[in-house]
TrEMBL record:
Family to which the UniProt record says this protein belongs: Belongs to the methylmalonyl-CoA mutase family.
Cofactor(s) the protein requires to work: adenosylcob(III)alamin
Entry keyword annotation includes Isomerase: yes
Keywords: Cobalamin, Cobalt, Isomerase
Protein name as catalogued: Methylmalonyl-CoA mutase family protein
Sequence ranges assigned to domain Methylmalonyl-CoA mutase alpha/beta chain catalytic in this UniProt record: 43-458
Recorded superkingdom: Bacteria
Amino acid sequence: MSQTPLHIAQDFPATSVEEWRRLVDKDLKGKPFTSLQSALEGGLTLQPLYTREDAGPAAAPEPPGVAPFVRGTNALGLTEGGWLVCQEYSEPDVATAAEAIRVDLERGVLGVWLRLGETQGIRVRNTADMERLLASVPLSRTPVYLESEEDPTLSATFLLQVADRTRTSQEALQGCLGLDPLGVLARTGALRSGLQAAFTEAAPLITSTRKGSPGLRALLVSTRAYADAGATSVHELAWAIATGVEYLRGLERAGIPPEDVARSLQFSFSVGSQFFPEIAKLRAARLLWSKVVAASGGSPEAQAMVLHARTAAATKSRRDPWVNMLRSTSESFAAVVGGADSITTSPFDEAIGLPDEFSRRIARNTQLILRDESSLNRVADPAGGSHYIEQLTRDMARAAWTELRRIEALGGMTAALVQGDIARVLAETVAARNKSIRTRRLPIVGVSEFPNLDEQAVSRTSRASETASPVSAGPAELRMTPLRPVRLADAFELLRDASDRHLAAHGHRPRAFMANLGTVAEHTARAMWIANALAAGGIEPVQHHGFADVAQAASLIAASGARLVVLSGPDAMYPEWVPALTAALKQQSGRIVAVAGRPGEHEAAFRAAGVDLFIYAGGDLFETLSSLHKQLGVS
């Protein structure tokens, strides 16, 4: 689980800042001040200290409820009832999903978010299915949000027909019908009728809901496909606004004025693990959308973004999934502070399969505790006035605006998707992020850091059906390669999967004999680090502490039967012990010898003695573990 470095925002007199800078320069001992800066994805840079002067001549942000809505769209923030606790459902079976909805509504959930589709959602194929799904939902007071995998207009029709059957007033309906053609294109790779035809088809629904259902928004801009595929916060923000721009233009051509389009739009963002940048992203989203709608001639009321936030799928792990509870809590907290109108906390087991009642209970209770016990709904815009967050919001907005202009130069979001530009950017982003993950500069608790080889596996029913046909099959006016979801933990979890197969086939995991040199005090820190690193690849460390001499060490290692031996201890002992012990071990057939730590000037001598590899902080641990798997015959 990644952490955002701590940065301080404080009001200091100029003399205090200057004095602080002199002390910092002294402590740096010649290192540049820029060494204290932290780089964020998306080209952003965090300073070690933020003061009022960082705001420059810019005026203070408008209060909450005033355009451009950086501080929220409501004058009192979330203090009037709080945000909407909204649970998401994607169980394929209608009856199973309906029962989950019933239980959750009885126990604190206030809104229902339905993912619909044949492969990754609820299989609602007609109005009768939708009616069964919503049997326990009082539509007159419960917001319902649709996110359809393939045909949003058909799904919206089902919902409206259920409202008619249950004699629910159209005026009382709340939520979103989920018309998001570019979201469908990005997720499935196909838009059957083309974009302008989708706009033409959506126009009557927009008109009717604007007149008869003011609490029901027809259009959705969801960033799920981009966030799940690895987008940075800057890219997710920019592509959401670019999609909104595309909808404003296309629907105007279909006869819907920008004012009505803006008032019919709902945005949905994923919230990842970088706490402060995610807060800034949501605040910047409202700022940028307000500017776009204002430039389109929209009124201040139309400029107010309706914003849903969902805890990110990419940050969740299959291994040690209990840590996902902490990840989701942090992400939900960021969504609240960022001012989301409604929030979905994903179940901790979503990366494994279909959630059970326990995981859904933990998910909804996460928000209930944040609201009712932590009282996060009692402060209007808790982030407001923080020089750090205000500046980060502006930086995020500027970076996203630059990306938006680049997308516009390509011809808009549709062109960027179909031409493969979005996929290219995502591939570059994922490659750069994977480098940080592989070296553990971006650690994943429970997976690449502090893995538990003895954890009891959490088993869930698989989410995808083997019989479901691909959504993108058949002819389509617009087609592209669907964006592929990724998770931060994917690479290391593949190594753990291979270790599990080895355990099942041989009765034990791949092992490493840890030859810890010197006293316990001398070798403990390094030995623990190495054991943790090996376990990240599913390699079980077998510890032995201290040896009388090289002969005893070689004898004990031979008796262990371990092919992989890791020599670990204080650097001062290495010149004497490593060449001699390695030479003795290499006389034993098939022995792989690794040394813990950087070899420095001794590398040539150690390799000449037969050392195969060195394991150290900052190296490509994934590559090292993958190589060891191959040498140890781990499939």
